[in-house]
Design goal:
The structure is a homodimer. Chain A has two domains: 92 residues, Winged helix-like DNA-binding domain superfamily/Winged helix DNA-binding domain (Arc Repressor Mutant, subunit A), CATH 1.10.10; 112 residues, Nonspecific Lipid-transfer Protein, Chain A. Chain A contains ten helices and seven strands. In chain A, the strands form two sheets. Chain A has a five-stranded mixed β-sheet. In chain A, strand 1 and strand 2 form a beta hairpin. The relative contact order of chain A is 0.12. The interface between A and B is large, with 53 and 53 residues. Chain B binds a DNA duplex through helix 3 and helix 4.
Chain lengths: 245, 245
DNA sequence: CGGTATCCCCCGCGATACTG
DNA sequence: CAGTATCGCGGGGGATACCG
């Protein structure tokens, strides 16, 4: 949190907000991440020391509140009111990225885990099928050495999405076999599914009605579009199951 | 422009936007600064090499366009369409700073030159007096060694504001003698003028009607408020005089 | 003035080890 | 697991020189 030695409101905000990793850390907190491990999972490449340092800085800045958990060891981190006020900035950064970041995503930016967990986080629960739908992913062209598992499963059943790294036991309804980079762009809306299929980079296999359900649930459109992302809180993926409303 | 190795739209935007100095540089470009020297004046503490580097990075990112000037030596820098799209982000950062940055401004953040030039940039031309109004500033409590001139003059005459470091020749209408830090907070709206006067940290001397005009023109209110700042382009302060409309 | 090239220092950050 | 403390390296960035 190095000072700009300026009273300009933009500079004062930049001192807090525009440090390395901070916007992404705030994104995680905006989405409801509370524990150190959760935050680290959302920021796969940050080192623990740096994460701890950033959290300390944000606490000092009055943006994050850190409360001891009953176990006396762990803590809970949450945004203060001032921190919550960064949410519109995160939203706007997401929009800039979605409209002007097209063409900036290199293969090295993609990673199956981020992608699948990101889908879980951002899927519209309303668009999920009422019955269970199991989608299996087989990614090719995975460049990152770490966490490069090629097979993933998504179990969709309104209003929940489960992510699995092992076959979930249920029968697979739809198999998506795709180049990781291509499918990531389709997910983001930067490429149309139709074009990616024509190029042979994405395949959806399964009974047509199921495939249609999966496309609807995942928001995979034939033509490119600007997918909006919502950064409001999600239920803790590792917390206790939410009681049915 | 270090990568986060992530396809997340927020991360992609952060790679470009959330680097040190970049938000402030974009603020300057948003306000219409075009030449290297102008940019450097708006970012007093940046080194020339770093400014050049940032401009190069932003050009590479397609955010800034760099065009040679006829003299074959200098260049003109301006925002591309993608760069223009950062304006809402700058505005929002300004708002965050104005509403949540109160109390974060330390005496070391203040500087007479920044303050006076900032007033020139952000004054509402509509609120300026029709006739000429000359305001003299005498700052005390200036901590910065460099560019610490204590005396400044503002010549207000709708729709123009002139900044002088020497007595402009015209008779002075209003003299503002103030502690730099206190007056900066009053200007920002973080402190009320009434309270600052009571504390003896700001004095306005001159015929009451003129003082009232100056207060109106400068937006100095008795009670604290959230002053909004506009970052849309201003006429070049060193360019040719604008022909009267 | 408006930059570019070079040098070099400092500190930001990663790696590692340690603790409850 | 959830951090804290320490060490050591690399590169980000300041200072300077130089050029058109």
């Amino acid at each position: 949190m190095k000072s700009y030695a300026s009273f300009c409101p933009v500079a004062k905000t930049a001192e807090i907000f525009a440090e390395r990793w901070t916007p992404l850390l705030l994104r995680e907190l905006c989405m409801g991440a509370r524990r150190f491990g959760e935050l680290q999972q959302g920021l796969p490449l940050i080192s623990r020391s740096l994460l701890a340092q950033r959290l300390r800085e944000l606490e000092l800045a009055g943006v994050v509140e850190r409360m001891p958990l009953p176990d006396g060891v762990r803590h809970e981190y949450r945004l203060t009111v001032e921190g919550e006020a960064f949410r519109p900035l995160i939203d706007l950064m997401g929009m800039w990225g979605q409209t002007h970041g097209r063409g900036r995503i290199r293969p090295g930016d993609t990673d199956p885990a981020q992608l699948v967990w990101g889908m879980r986080r951002h899927l519209e629960t309303a668009a999920l099928p009422a019955g269970r739908l199991v989608v299996q992913f087989e990614f090719s062209g995975v460049t990152k050495a770490w966490n490069a598992a090629r097979y993933w499963w998504l179990v969709l059943r309104r209003p929940e999405v489960d992510v699995c790294q092992k076959h979930p036991g249920y029968d697979v309804d739809v198999t998506i076999a795709a180049r990781l980079h291509a499918f990531t762009l389709v997910w983001l809306g930067h490429r149309g599914l139709a074009e990616a299929r024509r190029a042979g980079e994405v395949r959806l296999d399964g009974p047509p009605p199921k495939v249609a359900l999966a496309r609807e649930a995942l928001g995979l459109r034939d033509e490119p579009w600007v997918r909006g992302f919502d950064f409001s809180p999600r239920p803790d993926p590792f917390g206790p199951p939410v009681p049915p409303a």
